[in-house]
Specification:
The complex is a heterodimer of chains A (180) and B (304). By secondary structure, chain A is an alpha/beta fold. Chain A has a single domain, classed as Bacterial phosphonate metabolism protein PhnH (Rossmann fold), CATH 3.40.50.11310. Chain A is built from 5 helices and 10 strands; from the N terminus they run H-E-H-E-H-E-E-H-E-E-E-H-E-E-E. Chain B has 2 domains: 168 residues, Bacterial phosphonate metabolism protein PhnH (Rossmann fold), CATH 3.40.50; 45 residues, no CATH class. In chain B, helix 4 links the parallel strand 2 and strand 3. The chains are: A alpha/beta (180), B alpha/beta (304). At the A-B interface, helix 1 of A face helix 2, strand 1, helix 4 and helix 5 of B.
Amino acid sequence: MQAAPTPDALETRDNLTFEAVLWALSRPGEPRALPDAGAGAILSALVDRECRAYADDPEIETLLRQSGASLVPLELADHVFAGLTTDSDLARFMRVPVGDMLYPDQGATVIAPAQIGSGTALRLTGPGIETARDIRLGGLHPRLWEVRATLCRYPLGVEMLFVDGAQILALPRSTQVEGI
Amino acid sequence: MSLTGLTRPWKDFSYGFLDASAKRELRRKMLKAVAVPGCQMPYASREVPIARGWGTGGLQVTCTLLNPGHTVKVIDQGADDSVNAASIRRFLTRVSGARSTWDTLEASLIQSRHRVPEEILREDQILILQVPNPEPLRPVEPNMSVARQMHADADYGRMWLQLYEQIVRSGRVMFGAAYPSLVHGRYVMTPSPIPRWDVPKLNMARHLTILSAGREKRLYAVPPYTRVEPLVFDDVPYKVEEHGHLTCYRSGLKGFFMNEIPQEDGGALHEVSDSHLGIKAIRQGDGEDVATGDTWYTNGEMGQ
């Protein structure tokens, strides 16, 4: 019998990154460890030449170019790597595609830096949460949650992946966010 | 920037059989499926070395999730030792180096056809169900573009009408398996052809369930702690199969979903459908130290 193949470093990282993202998204508000710090690992696990992406960070943009994804204006992107701190960030966030009723999967995935465990106190409810989960998220625009609520009219909406170093916290569109 | 910097080193075999771009597509779709529970997400569905309709959807999801740290269990109609389960399990371990098991408690990934194990799944386990027909509206609307519009409008009137007609004609709902269920109050999904007995196990479960149809090229998911409600009328309650009083003739287990084995004299014997649960009961009877987890049903009654 032949020896089983072994995964190379990239395959291992992509696999573990996806495992963390899937766990985080199925259990919104639960922080999960990524194998590598930063949004780069998420990019390499998810984005390739079939994707349309937008990034506000030149470093991420370089990675996107290497992945083969087409760099498009924000209104057309399915993967958005952008900060959500300033007023202009927020104005931009309002234009992120949310999919349509026939194909809700065309709503974008937004990957943004944030501070997990400090900042605004939020209460989350929805699928993946047994009753309610209280979290703290910092480094984000104070009006972000208002804007998110206008974008996420279930089943339309965006998935938000917050990256803090090597930690990820995810909010799918199905999660209700309430400030407390 | 050089050309070699942009290409990956040559490999003679992709780990986990699927190539990297196939995996990335499945990953993207799985995330969207989790975000919109019960909504069918289209995907490309690559060729895998089994025929379409024999579990290719589940196989692609499992191949994407696999790493050498995982332990895989493959179920076919409750059994670990049938041809379909045994070949899929052998394929998965060969292409990934992951361990395989028959024991639900040891498994981290459970790929299944037509059954959910009787032992309660933990939050670190993922159940992958193979789906032959992902469209619950197909019996009432053969045009899938129209069916997609009906899902978009949450227009499930014909679904209810079908249930009503069955009750009027036959006195009961005639869905034996794949009972249409409302997920998170929005999308009606078919839970794959699991018996009615297994549908309540998906409701507010601790584990993540991913359902994938390779031939139909769609996948959908039920995240943990998500409502899965079988469609029922207020005055006609949901009924699971009446297996609570049956006893397995091999293991002596009682109160679980059973396979009926017809006998020559016209009677029937019953055998517990979750085969490894039966094996564990037999081993325990022989005095072996085997652990059995808590089960969803006790004495034929669903917990909670």
